[in-house]
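Late entry, S-adenosylmethionine complex.
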Amino acid sequence: MSTCLSTPADTSAARAFRDRIIIRDEIDRYLRDGDFIDEARIETALKEAVNPDPARVRDILAKSLAIETLLPEETAVLLQVTDPELRREMETAALAIKHKVYDNRIVTFAPMYISSYCVNRCRYCGFSADNHRQRRRCLTMDEIRAEAAAMCGRDGHKRVMAVYGEHPMTGAEFIAESLQAIYSVEVRTRRGKTSVRRVNVNAAPLPIDDLRIVQKGGIGTFQVFQETYHRRTYAAMHPADTIKGDYDWRVTCMHRAFDAGIDDVGLGVLFGLADWKFEVMGLLMHSRELERFVNIGPHTISVPRLHPASGSDISRHTPAPFTDEDFVHALTVLRLSVPYTGLILTARESAALRDRCVGLGITQMDASTRIGVGAYSDAPVGQEIDKQQFMLGDNRTLEELICDLARRGIITSFCTAGYRCGRTGGCIMDALKTGKEGKFCKVNAVLTFREWLDDFASPEALKICEPVLQSELDAIREQLPKFYPTVKEHYDRIVAGERDLFF
Ligand code: SAM
Ligand code: SF4
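Prediction complete; structure with ligand written out below:
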């Protein structure tokens, strides 16, 4: 396996790679009207919103409940709420919005780390080229197929987030080929067969032509986190001579994705690097800019928080400490500010905190998570800091998570229908904003949950989960009486062993 460009000693090769990747015109055309992350406006809005009037807060909540994206000044008001009563009202509104847009379900996925080779030197990351302790690996296509088989055959995952460092070994062609390798795997289960049905990608920003190649490979959501929207902090975390050191290349990557035909994108920041209120404002401004640009906001927003990583002092001494209370408030404000978006909370956080955040409008969680490269096919050895990007806080299996959710009356969905039925981009935005997608979600959640229970659940899990499934079926009969017979007919076919039915 090649190790080229994995150390800073390879500077001339690294420079040539950077010159090939970053295309100045593919930045400038999107920033012609200036920087859409307006730092001065963020600072002023936050300053002017201190001690907000409760009546103003309630007016803003009404706008969120109507599934309208907030203005930066409105988000600033919500961020500055400190009164516990008012915060509780905000949390109630956040959950009501989640139910209106996404119904009573959590979608699960698992990350597949494909390569830990990286030319960048992000100061918080275990994959940094400066970290010589990292034992690096890049999977072959056979190894990728083995990972996919383990993920869908053992735990029953249908959705994978493929994760890559930035390196010439893992360019656009490699990414596209790896997506095809994952989709190609089919595994027999005890009652039918299964496969990974949606592959999302978390990778570095790419030029438009490269993004077209990845799009043809069958990408689901293209996820790139800005890490921090605060330029000074960004410069301190990402050395200027690296590709990632170019803030503008990163902040314009979703514009390029849309121009390349990828209409399903995910934003995120790495909380703990800069002031969290600033970051929430940055996420809102980025979402509004995408709405302005193509009338399509982010399909998801992720909220990773800095966790210990091998070779990184910064990851152990968070530059901008961010308490659990701040985290809960940030999530609540995000749900209220971009009401249609999916919110992803990963296993970086503890089980207790994740469980609490389910009540605030989270829509996606990972489980049975392993973040070492090749870790699903390797014998389980627990977490090894020098073989993974950072340390995880929640080690629950998928079945444990599903049962914990079911005990609270929440159904787990394995639905991947929206993307496969063409409900993406502008089409999904309309469906989400009007609550239509929630209805599809409810039906597809029931069908895919039945499938997972029959193929993977233990007898104990079945006992815990059947009542939730039954109550969701009853709700469909009540709320969608005309549609119910068709749903029930599909449901019975799944019970009889047919697979992958959806609306
Ligand atoms: N290399 C690509 C990039 O940087 O865009 C792919 C993503 S990286 C493998 C996935 C994400 O992990 C990063 O965008 C960052 O937000 C997050 N991450 C990096 N170091 C972390 C740490 N110490 N704790 C938590 N999350 C971290
Ligand atoms: Fe590389 Fe991404 Fe880690 Fe930065 S965050 S060092 S780009 S893998």
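The mean pLDDT is 92. Will revisit in the morning.
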